[in-house]
Amino acid sequence: MSTPAPARSSSTTAPTRARRRLALLVLAVLIASAGVLGAAPGSEARTPPAGLGGFVPGTLISDAQMFAGTSMTAAQVDAFLDQKGASCTRGTDGADCLKDLRMDTPQRAKDAYCAAIPAKRAASAGTIIADVARACSISPKVLLTMLQKEQGLVTTRNATPKMLREALGFGCPDFQTCDPKYAGFAQQIYNAGVRLQAYGDPARGYRYQAGRTYDIQYSPYAFCGYGKVTISNRATAALYNYTPFTPTQATLDAGSSAVVDDVCATYGNRNFYRLYSQWFGSPTGASTSRYPVAAPLGKKPADPFADVPYDSTIFFTEIAWMNHMGYSTGWGSGASAVYRPYDQIKRDAVIAFLYRAAGSPAFTPPKVSPFKDVNSKDTVFYKEITWAHSVGLAQGWPDGTFRPYEPIKRDAMAAFLHRAAGAPAFTGPTRSPFTDVHRGSEVFYDEITWMAANGYSTGWSDGTFRPYEPIKRDAVAAFVYRWKVA
């Protein structure tokens, strides 16, 4: 892989996302080599994160485990909910814990995937789950695991109406509102049971099918890349159709935790495997001592800009995210558009980024500019700059200028970002995290140390922040990404 332009330092501001992406590239080579040499994937000596031992992306659960509809009785499910939800108390908004829930359920007619279910009065959660499990031949263990991985309902201390209404996330696409016709605990359980059967049925032609190899996205953001997954069975196909993302290696390495500031990390299928393993034993029968291995890189994502290639740009994810969010469109259009990542960024462009990051709020710019070197006729970002002044984001210099075309220095970028975040109260530490930033000699000491405290900047490997150096466009993308994604 090529390295970035030497004019920038990557060693201190490179985020964990970049390192993970490069690690995935290496992982793909290692896995391919292991196949040639006959080594078993995932045979690392280190201890797997709890519940993830034996994870492989192509087999999330066996068909035998998935479709064991009578593996628990209603009484056993209720007892399980009593145990796991022992600390749960009824919410102040009236939402019941699963262990206490009682509700009437309608009669369900037989369909292509589920037997008929009679109406019940004051049915417990265990009864609702067991009835659907038996009728649809979906293991109650699977439904319990999905209740936890979707909403945390099994172990929550306080359920909410929303958690019960969207219990299994069915009819709730990522980043979209849920379909009201599937709302409610009983509706969620039943429709999920039906759909898990349908999702695995090759006759229905859903996107993922057993016995085929796919490039499956690591996250809803296509720029995060694709893992190459060979789906081994109907049950795994059903789960990928339900949650169509495969975890990155960083996501698996994190165990039960989230990966900090990473839009490329998704947890649904990781958490399904982990929770099922911890509650009911391995869902696949694989050795739990084997370290989990993510899907190797498959199809390469499209470059957001012609000069921001996927495999040789440290801040690829951050710049691609900026483009995806509409914060930066670069120069030009289509496949020839460029971002110029290693150019110094000017003050007017930074304000434009922050205006868009604020949601491009409605604003009527004044007829008279607050800055004598900014005017509505000649200044491209007149609206954005005057908006920034109106909200206290940009104050300019004592001589009344804004100097829109000057490169912005790293200290001023810290000040802008702190104000854009709402100027949260923060008093910098007595001891600076950077060797070249000191209280009393640095105007923006609190803002710079606020950046460090929140992980928005780590500086360089020599311990410096270099406050008076002009900042480059790639680093601005990294700062904004960390601020907005954190």
Describe this structure as you would to a colleague.
With 486 residues, this protein is mainly α. The protein has two domains: 40-301, no CATH class; 316-485, no CATH class. Helices cover 35% and strands 4% of the residues. The chain has helices at residues 16-37, 63-66, 74-84, 125-136, 140-151, 161-165, 185-200, 234-242, 249-253, 268-280, 316-325, 347-357, 382-390, 410-420, 445-453, 473-485, and strands spanning 102-105, 120-124, 213-217, 226-230. The strands form two sheets. Strands 1-2 form a two-stranded antiparallel sheet. Helix 7 crosses helix 8. The longest helix has 22 residues, at 16-37. Mean pLDDT is 90; it is low at 1-43. Residues 368-431, 432-486 form the SLH domain. InterPro entries: SLH_dom (IPR001119). This is SLH domain-containing protein.
Helix-strand blueprint:
Blueprint: H1 16-37, H2 63-66, H3 74-84, E1 102-105, E2 120-124, H4 125-136, H5 140-151, H6 161-165, H7 185-200, E3 213-217, E4 226-230, H8 234-242, H9 249-253, H10 268-280, H11 316-325, H12 347-357, H13 382-390, H14 410-420, H15 445-453, H16 473-485
Antiparallel strand pairs: 1-2, 3-4
Features:
486 residues; mainly alpha; 2 domains; two-stranded antiparallel ribbon; 16 helices; elongated; disordered N terminus; SLH_dom; SLH domain-containing protein
| Strands side by side in the biggest sheet | 1-2
Q: What is the distance, rounded to the nearest whole angstrom, between the alpha carbons of the first and last residues?
A: 29 Å
State Rg.
26 Å
CA-based shape: elongated
Beta-strand fraction estimate: under 5%
Structural class: mainly alpha
- How many discrete domains? 2
Compressed to H and E, one letter per element, the order equals HHHEEHHHHEEHHHHHHHHH
Main pleated sheet: 2 strands, antiparallel
Q: Number of DSSP strands?
A: 4
Low-confidence stretches: 1-43
Discrete helix count: 16
Helix percent band: 25-40%
Output mean pLDDT: 90
Organism: Brachybacterium paraconglomeratum
Protein name: SLH domain-containing protein
InterPro entries: SLH_dom (IPR001119)
Pfam family, one: SLH
